[in-house]
Amino acid sequence: MAVARIIPNRYTGDPQTGKDFFNQVLGLETAMAMAMDFISLYRSATQPMAQISIISDDPSGLRPAYSVGVDDVDAVHARAIEAGHEIVYALRDEPWGVRRFFVRDPLGDIANVVQNKD
What we know:
- By secondary structure, this protein is mostly beta strands.
- The chain has one domain (3-116): 2,3-Dihydroxybiphenyl 1,2-Dioxygenase, domain 1, CATH 3.10.180.
- The chain has helices spanning 19-25, 73-82, and strands at 3-11, 29-30, 39-43, 51-55, 66-70, 87-93, 98-104, 110-116.
- The mean pLDDT is 92.
């Protein structure tokens, strides 16, 4: 199991908030695959795993503090359960092409553990 990226998640009423700042000031590009009505994802053109998500409301109704992109979400899910961590959003396939679950980390934050379904 490999971690491909860790993305901070920021919340606001409108996921387009800050677009000019992220695009023009920081020079990040909008990741069009993740430009949906509830999320805008910005990334570096030269380091595409350097990313930040701006989210209005996650469809789960929860607010994960960060997302961890992995290559085997089922294995991470099994390890989290085996270690006794609280699963706060069950493992599932989402309609936008990812498989994910949420787990509470030891600091009390929610982690969105996600795998793209290519």
